[in-house]
Amino acid sequence: MTRLNAESGTRAARFAGTTPLGLDNVDVAALDRYLRETIGGFSGPLEVQQFRGGQSNPTYFLTSPSGRYVVRRRPAAGVEQAAHAVDREYRVLKALETSDVPVPRALAFCQDLSVIGCQFYVMSFVEGRLFWDLSLPGLTLSERAAIYDAMNETLARLHMLDPVSLGLADYGKPAGYMARQVRRWTGQYRATCDQAIPAMEALAAWLPEHLPSDEAALIHGDYRLDNIIWHPSEPRILAVLDWELSTLGHPIADMIGQCIYWHFKSGTLAGLAGEDLASLGIPDEKSYIRAYLRRTGRAQIGDFRPFYAFAMFRLAAILFGVARRGEQGTATNDSARDFGFAALEVAELGAQFVHESGR
Hints:
This protein has 12 helices and 12 strands. By secondary structure, it is of the alpha+beta class. The protein folds into 2 domains: 4-129, 2-Layer Sandwich (Phosphorylase Kinase, domain 1); 130-353, Aminoglycoside phosphotransferase (APH), C-terminal lobe (Aminoglycoside 3'-phosphotransferase, Chain: A, domain 2, Alpha-Beta Complex), CATH 3.90.1200. A 6-stranded antiparallel beta sheet has the order 2-3-4-5-7-6. It has a two-stranded parallel sheet with strand order 1-8. The chain has a two-stranded antiparallel sheet with strand order 9-12.
């Protein structure tokens, strides 16, 4: 995996690239020994830097005479660990290696805490572009359209995979995904915030009474532009990254989890609201949804409100958690504390959706 900066916007300046190891240190010598013993053809000495992007599981860029690798590990002790199951990430990457959903190659999983103090896995380094800005500055209209079409097609392919044939029949409970998620993130938000947030409380009360019927597919859980590595010169996906929230869940919830970015303005969350999409060659949200429904052979969804409210609620809860880790000094990026303001905006926007008559 690599995240080569493809534009010079604010988010790229804050999150792209790597930094030297800091307080969240890694025993490089121990990691070097582990890789020599585990990965065929590996040779040292090893150099390690930390990726600046990402706000959850710390991720490291490894270089050595034998090649380049990526390590993804649990975060520092003291944070809620169930949400950072790198063993699940490794498992889904291995399962998808033979599918038509491109992912980095999973090389090794380490449960031995004596190596770097926590579980981690090693994956291949994928050379390519990472786009931080959804408006895709610097590209042509046709290139932007092709990139959005490729994102749409890949998500549809993912949701049409058979978890059983992939060996992922037990990767999640087939029923009750959204209900469990609402309970989980309600608890997380309340444990994170020192006081009740009216919009979050409104969503926590509304959602359990308005959830759609269950469906189950393999879902990514955080599918968006900057979790994808693109071919250096073509609008082609080389690898989908960051499978931390993947499970068996409702595919429409997964798709709407990407579509909510059409409602955010550019800035911390890098949305598309206010952009002249037609002049950019980027599909509007309804067109993007129609393309997904066509590819998956689905009929039009009647009421999208529960999906939008759910996606906003979950994202806000995650952002509140990122902000808290920033306050505690355990976040991956120094900008984590800024996400508290974004969380409030997302929660309030989510609460607005419940009052709409449908989409």
